[in-house]
Each structure stands twice: as structure tokens, then as C-alpha cells.
Amino acid sequence: MADLFAEVAIIGTALDKGLHYSVPGCFAAKVRPGSRVSVELGKRKATGVVLRVGDSLPDLHATITIRQILDTIDELPAHPIFSNCASGYRAITFIPPARCSIL
Questions:
Q1: What is the topology classification, in CATH, of domain 4-92?
Q2: Handedness of CA 82, 23, 65, 46 (dihedral sign)
Q3: How far apart are CA 62 and CA 72, in angstroms?
């Protein structure tokens, strides 16, 4: 099985980009865009939403250490719209209220 990596948006931080984590083999079937995961951020645990999953990393600085995802919180996307959009977390910035009709 090839190595998998996930780009994760950390919830509750001011980071304007996703961070990259390796996906342990036992979570490979569970980690997908929109699912929430537990990760290490500095010396603490944090919750994040998976933006992308792939078998390669972008070019990163040589001093960056890729940590593993610690656990999955849920297997399903945090929001159903998320799973249908390839553009990542920006897809969930506008969700119309239930009372609105979309033509």
C-alpha cells in the first residue's frame, strides 16, 4: 500500500492554510475530505477537518517534520456539501439557510 498524506485545516486557529499529516494504514479507509481528525499541533492535540488526501506531498521545507494523524473523530464528512466539492473547505463558507429556496 502506498503512503497516504492528508492536508488538514485545524479548527480554532488563525492558520490560513492546511497542515500536512501522514495517514496511518489503519485509518486509510476512514480519512477522506470532510472527515474530522485528531492531530498533534505543537505540544497539544487539536481537531482538524481533512481538506485533501493524496499519495504525495507538496514541496515542503526540509526541516518540516510530517506527523501522523492520531485518530479519526468521524468517518463521514462533517457536512454533506463538503464531500461533493473538490475545492476543499472554501465550499462550506456559504451554506444557505434551510428556509431559502435555491433555483
A1: GIY-YIG endonuclease (3.40.1440)
A2: positive
A3: 27
